Amino acid sequence: MSVDCKRPLRLLHTSDIHIGEEFDPARRLAGLTAVVDAAIACQVHALLIVGDLFDSTRVKSTDIEAALSQLARLTIPTIVSNGNHDALENPSIYDYVRVTDAGDHIYFVDDTEGKHIVLEDLHLTIWARAMMGHEPRHKPLTGYKKHKEEYWQVVLAHGYYFRPDQRSDRSSPILAQEIAELGCDYLALGHWHHFVDVSVNGVPAFYSGSPATGAANLVILDPANGTRVERIPLGVQGAPLLRL
User: Fold this and answer.
1) Helix (H, G, I), strand (E, B) or coil at 90
2) Strand, coil or helix: what is 47?
3) Domain-wise residue ranges, the chain
4) Looking at the predicted structure, is the pLDDT value of residue 241 above 50?
5) In angstroms, rounded to a whole number, what is the distance separating the alpha carbons of residues 167 and 157?
6) Distance from C-alpha of 38 to C-alpha of 233, rounded to nearest angstrom
7) What's the topology of domain 9-233?
8) Which of 12, 16, 24, 47 is most buried, with most CB under 10 Å away?
9) Is residue 201 within 8 Å of residue 179, measured between CB atoms?
10) What is the tens place of the pLDDT at every residue in 130-156?
11) pTM assigned to the model
12) Any alpha helices (H) in 56-191, and if so which ranges?
């Protein structure tokens, strides 16, 4: 019989940072800077970046270097999954950018079948499936299975959420029924640039929104009280919503 070894954890969840976005690249970098500042100030145990860290394959080298410099400020595990703007299909920004160059604390999910990142010290497993291409055939949650029952189970997914009464006719669909069947402790979502709670069947599932909208999700995992999500303000003001 496994022994439950979960301990209280604090995670910071963000997505859709869009480094190098042509309209206002300085503000996109300011969003990442604010996320890193918040992760340090809140003393979180891990940072989750759920897709679209980069806006396209045309990001300038100066913006790439600045982004990696911000990530290098951290010492906590930082998990980066990709999205529709930084998908792995050729050409991909990840053909020539290695986010792991920012330090050994960076974990980049590049497995298109999905994989678990196991953080033994935190008794935490994080699963994500890399996006090769943003299309209806890509199912962000397909393939997930619990890894270590006695650890915290967190899932990352970048895609479009559909309610049970909606037709799933868009790329990278995430269905309410899929969420209901996960059984994980937290589903961190990306692709929508605003905060949305899409929890189903007791599974906490949230979009964090882009940092350009001024906030991120502080996720509190507590063995006694379960999962709680708080909105943390970020020092980025006046940014418009970004395109999907």
Assistant:
1) coil
2) strand
3) 9-233
4) no
5) 19
6) 8
7) Purple Acid Phosphatase; chain A, domain 2 (3.60.21)
8) 16
9) yes
10) 999 999 999 999 999 999 889 999 999
11) 0.95
12) 61-71, 176-180
